[in-house]
# Entry
Amino acid sequence: MKKCLLMLGLCVLLSLSTSAFAGMLCTTIACLAPNDNINWGAQGYGAPGTSLVTPQSWVSTLGLYDGLVGVFGPTNFTLMQQSVTWNGNFDPGDYLIWNQDIDNFVGNAGQIRLVFASGLPVYDAGAAIQADFYGPFEATICATSFTGVQDCWNEAGVSNANADSSAIIIGVTEPWAIELLDFYVVDVNGNNDEAIDTVYLSTSTVPEPGTLMLLGSGVLGLAGMLRRKINL
# Structure
């Protein structure tokens, strides 16, 4: 009987921990708990307004991560800067990746894709995002693992020219290392013209101490109830 009780408790713990470690949407930088970031202005891509060929390499600010960035297709993309070459609602002065070729705008380009090549494994990642055309839009972020598991999340936003740091943050935290990270939008015209700001990265997947305590106390409480019920 004790063995059955132990197995039941273990199953409960596993089911709870699976839930605790499931991927989730992050809509704030604090949720991502970043230990590094990708500053697009520090990559040597040139001046704002420079058209770039997919893919381009990048290195994070502290050198903990590196990889590639481009527009899935592939097509050219452009380095932009809020309040210089971009009239949006990012932080003024921030450097951006725009999924259009400024020299040959075609509209409705592919999603912006990041590839994590080496360095520390990335479990948490996200960025501020804005649709090119003003008005409401829906943003999507998709994370894909090295084994092909994919997790996608959506968030509603509003695109405007206020330059007031109101661009939404869309990110994910996953229980597995991310290989590919894709950013999409669907704007008021049904197109995917978009820009993303600084990308925040983290390796943290350990649940908070309070979560572990709750899991442990829950299993112990269940065990106590069962003991009383079956007179162990």
About this structure: The radius of gyration is 21 Å. The first helix runs from residue 2 to 20.
